[in-house]
Amino acid sequence: MVGLFALVFITSGASAHSKPQITKKSVYETGHLYLPSENQMEDIDKTIARANDNNKLALVVMGANWCHDSRSLASKLYQPDVKEIIEANYELVFIDVGYLSKIKTVITRFGMPVIYATPTVLIVDPKTQKLINADNMHIWREAASLSILQTIEYFSEVAKNRKSRLAALSTIDGVDMAKLKELNRSISDFEQTQAARVYKAYAIVGSLLKEKKDGGKAEDFAKHWTAVADYRYKLTDHLIKLRQQAKVIASDKNSNMTLSLPEYSSFEWE
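RE: above sequence
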């Protein structure tokens, strides 16, 4: 934990023979905030309890220090303008996913079968413990490419519309919710099948990633990592479209439309 507070400054008692000023960046600047925990559930429980006590939302960020997008998001959350929004509206906890091996317990708690990217951002209503940003959470898979302004707009919008977002989980105007529930069940079954593939893929590429970080050869790492990345990007995009399609079908009583579930190529190990 010492590293969390390690800001080292060399004072400038300037003279012709002074050494150059050296500044060591803090983990808040570098984004190295994903620390192993012996009890992730307890960390999340405490965060949700604080959010409930303070009338805020719980912000659970799942990522890893080896991931540049995870680090980018973590550092953005401590930029002054973003930090102001976060502190006013959220209780924040970072969850280390290891080498894609510490995922299932946390993510399934909030109704999702698997994470599709690092980072994965979960915004949770503390009273119901329901996820309220599932509709647009996947933008954070490219956190490094998102600006400070986009980050501010995202977290401001969710906080501002927290009540309507929560209400939309049970009722949407003009939509047959029973029909939508049935359609979403089909999508969930499809997603569960794909999630099983994702976990198997993570076991392979996660192991290779660890080997690579430890200085090993990690043969075929780049090829397998790219194949898995392409798959999970397609999958998340398809899931969004499927859920949008389900709303369209459920809003038209006379619709004969049906869901069209995509198929994917096999991995080398399948």
